[in-house]
Amino acid sequence: MIVVGTSGWQYRDWRGRFYPRGLPQRVWLEHFAAGFATVEVNNAFYRLPERDTFAAWRARTPADFCVAVKMSRYLTHIKRLRDPAEPVARFLDRATALGDRLGPVLLQLPPNLRADVEALDATLRLFPAQVRVAVEPRHPSWWTDATRAVLERRRAALVWADRLGRPVAPRWRTTDFGYLRLHEGRARPWPRYGRAALRSWVRRLTDDFGPDEPAYVYFNNDPGGAAVVDAVAFAALARRAGHPVSRVPTAAEAAGTDD
Fold first, then answer.
1. Fewer CB within 10 Å, N- or C-terminus of the chain?
2. Of the candidates 53, 61, 71, the residue with the CA atom closest to the CA atom of residue 100
3. What is the structure's pLDDT at 256?
4. Domain architecture of the chain: domains with CATH
Protein backbone atom coordinates (compact mmCIF):
# COMPACT_ATOMS: atom_id res chain seq x y z
CA MET A 1 0.00 0.00 0.00
CA ILE A 2 1.33 3.43 -0.98
CA VAL A 3 0.02 5.97 1.54
CA VAL A 4 0.01 9.45 0.00
CA GLY A 5 -0.35 12.82 1.71
CA THR A 6 1.24 16.22 2.22
CA SER A 7 3.53 17.79 4.80
CA GLY A 8 1.01 19.87 6.72
CA TRP A 9 -2.47 21.10 5.88
CA GLN A 10 -2.67 24.68 7.23
CA TYR A 11 -1.49 26.83 4.34
CA ARG A 12 -3.31 30.06 3.63
CA ASP A 13 -2.60 29.96 -0.10
CA TRP A 14 -4.51 26.67 -0.32
CA ARG A 15 -7.69 28.66 0.28
CA GLY A 16 -9.50 29.00 -3.02
CA ARG A 17 -7.53 26.05 -4.33
CA PHE A 18 -7.88 22.92 -2.22
CA TYR A 19 -10.02 24.63 0.43
CA PRO A 20 -13.22 26.33 -0.75
CA ARG A 21 -13.08 30.07 -0.08
CA GLY A 22 -16.00 29.97 2.34
CA LEU A 23 -14.69 27.05 4.41
CA PRO A 24 -13.66 28.19 7.93
CA GLN A 25 -10.04 27.40 8.79
CA ARG A 26 -11.15 25.65 11.99
CA VAL A 27 -12.50 22.75 9.90
CA TRP A 28 -9.68 22.49 7.40
CA LEU A 29 -8.38 19.32 9.06
CA GLU A 30 -11.75 17.63 8.61
CA HIS A 31 -11.81 18.69 4.94
CA PHE A 32 -8.25 17.45 4.45
CA ALA A 33 -8.93 14.11 6.16
CA ALA A 34 -12.03 13.54 4.03
CA GLY A 35 -9.78 13.56 0.96
CA PHE A 36 -6.45 12.19 2.16
CA ALA A 37 -5.74 9.25 4.47
CA THR A 38 -2.55 10.72 5.94
CA VAL A 39 -0.70 13.93 6.78
CA GLU A 40 2.79 14.70 8.02
CA VAL A 41 2.72 17.21 10.89
CA ASN A 42 5.66 19.59 10.61
CA ASN A 43 4.74 22.18 13.22
CA ALA A 44 5.61 19.72 16.02
CA PHE A 45 9.23 20.27 14.98
CA TYR A 46 9.07 23.95 15.95
CA ARG A 47 6.76 23.70 18.95
CA LEU A 48 5.64 20.36 20.34
CA PRO A 49 1.85 20.46 20.78
CA GLU A 50 0.25 19.55 24.07
CA ARG A 51 -1.21 16.08 24.50
CA ASP A 52 -4.72 17.52 24.26
CA THR A 53 -3.96 18.80 20.75
CA PHE A 54 -2.91 15.36 19.57
CA ALA A 55 -6.03 13.88 21.16
CA ALA A 56 -8.16 16.45 19.37
CA TRP A 57 -6.62 15.55 16.02
CA ARG A 58 -7.53 11.94 16.70
CA ALA A 59 -11.13 12.88 17.50
CA ARG A 60 -11.46 15.05 14.38
CA THR A 61 -10.22 12.49 11.85
CA PRO A 62 -11.69 9.24 10.50
CA ALA A 63 -10.63 5.81 11.69
CA ASP A 64 -8.48 5.15 8.61
CA PHE A 65 -6.48 8.37 8.98
CA CYS A 66 -2.76 8.34 9.85
CA VAL A 67 -0.66 11.20 11.26
CA ALA A 68 3.11 11.14 10.79
CA VAL A 69 4.75 13.50 13.29
CA LYS A 70 8.07 15.31 12.93
CA MET A 71 10.19 15.06 16.06
CA SER A 72 10.81 18.24 18.04
CA ARG A 73 13.89 20.22 16.99
CA TYR A 74 14.88 20.29 20.67
CA LEU A 75 16.21 16.75 20.27
CA THR A 76 17.55 16.90 16.71
CA HIS A 77 18.82 20.47 16.33
CA ILE A 78 19.46 21.77 19.86
CA LYS A 79 20.50 18.61 21.72
CA ARG A 80 21.81 17.13 18.44
CA LEU A 81 20.77 13.62 19.58
CA ARG A 82 22.63 13.95 22.89
CA ASP A 83 20.84 12.95 26.12
CA PRO A 84 17.76 11.81 24.19
CA ALA A 85 15.82 10.13 27.02
CA GLU A 86 13.83 13.13 28.26
CA PRO A 87 13.00 14.65 24.83
CA VAL A 88 11.87 11.28 23.47
CA ALA A 89 9.79 10.51 26.56
CA ARG A 90 8.11 13.93 26.44
CA PHE A 91 7.41 13.57 22.73
CA LEU A 92 5.89 10.11 23.14
CA ASP A 93 3.83 11.17 26.16
CA ARG A 94 2.12 13.74 23.96
CA ALA A 95 2.07 12.18 20.49
CA THR A 96 0.70 8.83 21.67
CA ALA A 97 -2.58 10.63 22.39
CA LEU A 98 -3.18 10.06 18.68
CA GLY A 99 -3.73 6.40 19.55
CA ASP A 100 -4.22 4.32 16.43
CA ARG A 101 -3.91 7.45 14.26
CA LEU A 102 -0.18 7.75 15.07
CA GLY A 103 1.91 6.98 12.01
CA PRO A 104 5.68 7.13 11.65
CA VAL A 105 7.77 9.54 13.70
CA LEU A 106 10.14 11.56 11.50
CA LEU A 107 13.61 12.43 12.80
CA GLN A 108 15.02 15.05 10.42
CA LEU A 109 18.64 15.72 11.31
CA PRO A 110 20.38 19.09 10.78
CA PRO A 111 22.33 19.43 7.53
CA ASN A 112 25.48 20.28 9.53
CA LEU A 113 25.19 17.32 11.93
CA ARG A 114 27.95 14.89 11.03
CA ALA A 115 27.43 11.19 11.53
CA ASP A 116 27.23 10.04 15.13
CA VAL A 117 26.04 6.47 14.87
CA GLU A 118 26.19 5.81 18.60
CA ALA A 119 23.98 8.81 19.35
CA LEU A 120 21.51 7.72 16.69
CA ASP A 121 21.41 4.21 18.09
CA ALA A 122 20.86 5.52 21.63
CA THR A 123 17.96 7.62 20.37
CA LEU A 124 16.28 4.93 18.31
CA ARG A 125 16.35 2.32 21.07
CA LEU A 126 14.13 4.59 23.21
CA PHE A 127 11.16 4.19 20.87
CA PRO A 128 8.83 1.26 21.57
CA ALA A 129 8.68 -1.44 18.92
CA GLN A 130 5.15 -0.50 17.85
CA VAL A 131 6.18 3.05 16.90
CA ARG A 132 7.61 3.34 13.40
CA VAL A 133 10.53 5.76 13.09
CA ALA A 134 11.94 7.27 9.90
CA VAL A 135 15.30 9.07 9.90
CA GLU A 136 16.31 11.80 7.45
CA PRO A 137 20.06 12.49 7.76
CA ARG A 138 21.29 15.40 5.65
CA HIS A 139 25.07 15.35 6.00
CA PRO A 140 26.94 13.03 3.59
CA SER A 141 29.03 11.55 6.40
CA TRP A 142 25.99 9.45 7.36
CA TRP A 143 26.12 7.35 4.19
CA THR A 144 28.10 4.46 5.66
CA ASP A 145 27.58 0.79 6.38
CA ALA A 146 27.54 1.60 10.10
CA THR A 147 24.56 3.93 9.69
CA ARG A 148 22.71 1.40 7.61
CA ALA A 149 23.37 -1.32 10.19
CA VAL A 150 21.91 0.79 13.03
CA LEU A 151 18.78 1.58 11.04
CA GLU A 152 18.32 -2.09 10.19
CA ARG A 153 18.92 -3.24 13.77
CA ARG A 154 16.45 -0.70 15.17
CA ARG A 155 13.96 -1.32 12.34
CA ALA A 156 13.95 2.36 11.40
CA ALA A 157 13.42 3.55 7.84
CA LEU A 158 15.92 5.70 6.02
CA VAL A 159 13.94 8.57 4.51
CA TRP A 160 14.15 8.71 0.75
CA ALA A 161 14.18 12.37 -0.23
CA ASP A 162 13.89 14.27 -3.49
CA ARG A 163 14.78 17.81 -4.46
CA LEU A 164 14.43 19.12 -8.01
CA GLY A 165 13.52 15.66 -9.26
CA ARG A 166 16.68 13.97 -7.98
CA PRO A 167 17.31 11.69 -4.99
CA VAL A 168 19.33 13.41 -2.26
CA ALA A 169 19.97 10.29 -0.19
CA PRO A 170 20.80 6.64 -0.82
CA ARG A 171 17.83 4.42 -1.53
CA TRP A 172 18.52 1.95 1.25
CA ARG A 173 15.71 -0.31 2.34
CA THR A 174 16.31 -0.75 6.07
CA THR A 175 12.98 -2.08 7.40
CA ASP A 176 9.52 -3.24 6.37
CA PHE A 177 8.11 0.18 5.48
CA GLY A 178 9.20 3.06 3.27
CA TYR A 179 9.15 6.82 3.75
CA LEU A 180 9.54 9.29 0.88
CA ARG A 181 9.60 13.10 1.11
CA LEU A 182 9.38 15.22 -2.03
CA HIS A 183 10.63 18.73 -1.31
CA GLU A 184 10.70 20.60 -4.63
CA GLY A 185 10.08 19.74 -8.27
CA ARG A 186 11.48 21.17 -11.50
CA ALA A 187 8.20 21.60 -13.36
CA ARG A 188 6.14 24.74 -13.86
CA PRO A 189 4.56 26.40 -12.06
CA TRP A 190 7.22 26.15 -9.35
CA PRO A 191 7.57 23.97 -7.24
CA ARG A 192 5.51 21.35 -9.08
CA TYR A 193 6.76 17.91 -10.12
CA GLY A 194 6.58 16.66 -13.68
CA ARG A 195 4.97 13.35 -14.57
CA ALA A 196 8.28 11.71 -15.47
CA ALA A 197 9.73 12.44 -12.01
CA LEU A 198 6.61 11.16 -10.26
CA ARG A 199 6.55 8.03 -12.40
CA SER A 200 10.19 7.34 -11.49
CA TRP A 201 9.39 7.49 -7.78
CA VAL A 202 6.41 5.17 -8.20
CA ARG A 203 8.71 2.65 -9.87
CA ARG A 204 11.41 2.96 -7.20
CA LEU A 205 8.95 2.43 -4.36
CA THR A 206 7.22 -0.53 -5.94
CA ASP A 207 10.53 -2.15 -6.89
CA ASP A 208 11.55 -2.20 -3.21
CA PHE A 209 8.30 -2.59 -1.27
CA GLY A 210 5.56 -5.15 -1.73
CA PRO A 211 1.78 -4.54 -1.67
CA ASP A 212 1.58 -5.56 2.00
CA GLU A 213 4.33 -3.15 3.09
CA PRO A 214 3.31 0.49 3.62
CA ALA A 215 5.28 3.17 1.81
CA TYR A 216 4.47 6.65 3.13
CA VAL A 217 4.80 9.48 0.61
CA TYR A 218 4.60 13.14 1.64
CA PHE A 219 4.78 16.14 -0.67
CA ASN A 220 6.50 19.07 1.03
CA ASN A 221 6.25 21.50 -1.93
CA ASP A 222 3.31 23.38 -0.44
CA PRO A 223 3.44 26.83 -2.21
CA GLY A 224 0.44 27.43 -4.41
CA GLY A 225 -1.12 24.10 -3.52
CA ALA A 226 1.50 22.22 -5.56
CA ALA A 227 1.74 19.50 -2.92
CA VAL A 228 -1.95 18.61 -3.19
CA VAL A 229 -1.97 18.54 -6.99
CA ASP A 230 1.21 16.47 -7.14
CA ALA A 231 0.03 14.03 -4.47
CA VAL A 232 -3.13 13.35 -6.46
CA ALA A 233 -1.15 12.95 -9.68
CA PHE A 234 1.30 10.59 -7.96
CA ALA A 235 -1.54 8.44 -6.65
CA ALA A 236 -3.13 8.27 -10.10
CA LEU A 237 0.15 7.14 -11.69
CA ALA A 238 0.62 4.45 -9.03
CA ARG A 239 -2.92 3.15 -9.50
CA ARG A 240 -2.51 3.14 -13.27
CA ALA A 241 0.58 0.97 -12.77
CA GLY A 242 -1.55 -1.48 -10.76
CA HIS A 243 -0.46 -0.64 -7.22
CA PRO A 244 -2.75 -0.19 -4.18
CA VAL A 245 -2.88 3.43 -3.02
CA SER A 246 -4.61 5.21 -0.15
CA ARG A 247 -7.52 7.51 -0.91
CA VAL A 248 -6.81 10.99 -2.25
CA PRO A 249 -9.05 13.82 -3.48
CA THR A 250 -10.13 14.00 -7.10
CA ALA A 251 -8.02 16.03 -9.51
CA ALA A 252 -10.75 18.68 -9.60
CA GLU A 253 -10.83 18.94 -5.80
CA ALA A 254 -7.03 19.20 -5.65
CA ALA A 255 -6.97 22.02 -8.18
CA GLY A 256 -9.85 23.90 -6.56
CA THR A 257 -12.14 23.61 -9.56
CA ASP A 258 -14.85 21.68 -7.74
CA ASP A 259 -15.95 24.10 -5.00
1. C
2. 61
3. 82
4. 2-255 (3.20.20.410)
